[in-house]
Amino acid sequence: MIGAGGIGGYYAARLARAGHELVLTARGDHLQALRANGLTVDYEGEILRESLPAFSHSELIQRYEADTFDLIVIALKSTATRAVMNELSNWLKDASVPILSIQNGVDNEPTIAEIVGENRVLGGLAVRIGGHITDPGKVFAEGVAQIVMGAWPRQRPDDPRIFLLGQLERAYTAAGIPTTVSDNIRYELWRKLVINNGVNPLSALTGLDTRSLTHHPEFQKIVYGMMAETVAASKADNVNLGPEDLAEMFDLISNFNAIKTSMLVDKEKGRPLELDSIAGAVLRRCERLGVEAPYTMTVNALLTHSQS
Ligand SMILES: NC(=O)C1=CN([C@@H]2O[C@H](COP(=O)(O)OP(=O)(O)OC[C@H]3O[C@@H](n4cnc5c(N)ncnc54)[C@H](OP(=O)(O)O)[C@@H]3O)[C@@H](O)[C@H]2O)C=CC1
Ligand SMILES: CC(C)(CO)C(=O)C(=O)O
Questions:
Q1: What are phi and psi of 56, to 5 degrees?
Q2: Predicted ipTM?
Q3: From 1.10.1200.120, 3.40.1190.20, 1.10.1040.10, 3.40.1080.10, which CATH number describes the 187-306 domain?
Q4: Which ligand 2 atom minimizes the distance to the CA of 260?
Q5: In 75-165, which ranges are E strands?
Q6: Which residues belong to any copy of the Ketopantoate reductase C-terminal domain (predicted)?
Q7: The CATH classification of domain 6-183, taken from the options 3.40.1390.20, 2.170.120.30, 3.40.50.720, 3.40.50.1000
Q8: Nearest-atom index, ligand 2, CA of 259
Q9: Looking at the whole model, is its pTM more than 0.90?
């Protein structure tokens, strides 16, 4: 599990509890605490405690061949994907282990594919989960915490990854992670981006959680506007989301727990924001298509300005 933070830490703990062997990567105080005291996850009142090997990326490379692993899961922030992939590049290039991303955004899988080739990439997303590191070595998580995964960029009829995806679906689900395989993961990633562009930047700007935003008389219109602009942007990737996706995603996030988004957590901790991979991804595509995106442009500009 590359980047065992809020999301990676939760899923790693579930898999370990079910008997799977895991190795975690992290850095700083969190890494020190994982080594000294193990990983503790508070999931809706259930406490999961797991002692798992934890390393920096340079230690990982020194200790293991990449093909020691059946699967490498990337649960970093999108801001770190390129740098970490470059760091792991030689280690991964000479191997054949498949790589699953469970990050937000639609540009992580292409970045991973640049290093290892599309055939080794599984796209994925963490759905209906809120999670973050509360203290070094400690993670809080809530929600149904599903995973949707699939062959990147989409499954071919004779795709050799189908067998592995079936194995993962069964193993993850048996471990308590409701998992489904999609034959069009790019479509699923775009649907998730509709939610993330709708609520993440605005939550970081206002300090409000997802429920407060989607039930607020004015902010809900901005959320809806940013979601609609994401639907429009999807056409640049030939994904063609439609009004039914917009309605479904707005409904999903309005009726989900009151989540402090990952971007709000990052803002509060003074960490880099996944703004470029969320709002930036939408704005670049809208520009290419010649489509206006005034909500996303405004929120993106205000948030960028508040950071400087
Ligand atoms: N949190 C949430 O509720 C949700 C998040 N997501 C998505 O899941 C992904 C992961 O998010 P989340 O778990 O919140 O992120 P976190 O920041 O909690 O976890 C990422 C982990 O990776 C570590 N890391 C980052 N860069 C490096 C590096 N160069 N070397 C070693 N370790 C590194 C981080 O360390 P450090 O803390 O020092 O940066 C951190 O421990 C994101 O794409 C996010 O958008 C999806 C659904 C919900
Ligand atoms: C909005 C939310 C919680 C939806 O799962 C999310 O993906 C995030 O916080 O990044």
A1: -80, 170
A2: 0.97
A3: 1.10.1040.10
A4: 9
A5: 99-101, 121-127, 130-135, 138-142, 146-151
A6: 184-305
A7: 3.40.50.720
A8: 3
A9: yes
